[in-house]
Amino acid sequence: MLKIKTQDYSIVFNADGFESINEILNTNNYSKIFVIVDQITHEVCLNTFLTQIQTNTTIEIIEIEAGEQHKTIETCLGVWNALSELNADRRSIILNLGGGVVTDLGGFIACTYQRGIDFINIPTTLLAMVDASVGGKNGVDLGHLKNQVGIIKTPLLVHINTTFLETLSPKELRSGLAEMLKHGLIHSTTHWDKLTRLKDFTTSDFEALIFESVSIKKDIVEKDPYEKKERKTLNFGHTLGHAIESYFLTSKDKTRILHGDCVAIGMILACFISHKLLNFDLDDCNFIKGYLKQLYGEVSFTTKDINAIIELLKYDKKNEHGNINFVLLEAIAQPKINCLVDNQIIFEAFDYYKN
Length: 355
Description:
Catalyzes the conversion of 3-deoxy-D-arabino-heptulosonate 7-phosphate (DAHP) to dehydroquinate (DHQ). By secondary structure, the protein is an alpha/beta fold. It has helices at residues 15-27, 39-44, 46-50, 73-85, 100-112, 126-132, 170-187, 189-196, 203-223, 238-250, 259-278, 282-296, 303-312, 343-354, and strands at residues 3-5, 10-13, 33-38, 59-64, 93-98, 118-123, 137-142, 145-152, 157-160, 325-331, 334-340. The protein has 14 helices and eleven strands. A seven-stranded mixed sheet has the order 1-2-9-6-5-3-4, with helices on both faces. Strand 7 (137-142) and strand 8 form a beta hairpin.
């Protein structure tokens, strides 16, 4: 059985995951099973999933609208009401079948409905498999501010089924790859080198690398589950990346950029800032910029855009005592947390990104 064992739960891969889900469902005498999906996973993943579930317990499907813009308390209210109307009780269980929005929001709903019911996550995107699957972060956005409301609580199980990757577009696969590349940059030169040598993005390429990437995040989270020290390194590229994502999500004249694409931009910016402040090797910095821009393309930023993005930094969750804290690199796999950065250097970083 291909499995990663954490302190609180297991992450089980492919067919073995269905066996583990069925074991949980059939030994816990649940009153009802609720499956939360969005419109996309309802259409392309649900039937495949349900054919593998073996239980006599009633299964109810709750569908939410797809997209980060629906990761809100308003969506939670709709699901909480649906659970109540369908007679969910404290002996019910929620199965979250979807990407990071479904697993983050579904986990938050499970943690708060009747003060907490059991839940299992079945991530269906590469991004959710390598990021949202580990660490027990559940929550919702507050307007345009990402993940401002939430709770850390682990699921009973995470089932990673790489066959779901076949439902994704190349751009969705690239979005998830950004988090894997981040794991290499903050933790493992070997993982970074393997990923940058990939010739294409097939499911077979990803299976071993997903296992490795999830293992890296698991090791970091177990050292620091409540993000006081080591776990902060997982925010590399996310301080500016989240601000860029929020800005493009809410600006009427902008087109939304996928999370991983924003993180890729954030990592380029963070590498340049690392060069300026921590003497991060310029050749490594240039290689990272060239590789990521080749993979993700280039986004245009005006001075107005950059000022608005910098303004959003004050809402970053890593901030303490009014300080905006960056994760930077002294070298690949040598991160440094709680770094303070002047706005002028951030502008220089955007100039470096553009040129």
